[in-house]
Amino acid sequence: MGLTALGVPLSEEKRERKSRGRRRPKNRFEGRRSNNPARRNEQSESIKRALARFSVVPKPMGFPSEIDPPPRTIDVNWELNAVSKNTQKKAGEIVMRRGEFGFLPQERVDEIALQLDGLSISLEQALSLRNALNQEKSVYSHHKLMRRSNELSRRYNSGEDVISLSKRFDAPPVNTFRAILSGRGWGKNRIKEFLKHPSKMDDRDREQFELAESLDRVSSVNQDETHKASMVFEDVLYLFFDSIGVRYRTQEDLMAEQKKTEGRAVITPDLLMIDDVRINGVPCAWIDAKHFFGADLKFPRKKTQKQVDRYVAEYGHGAIVYRHGFCDGLVINGAEQLDASPLDLTLLDKFHEESSP
Question: Does the model's pTM come out above 0.90?
Answer without folding.
Answer: no
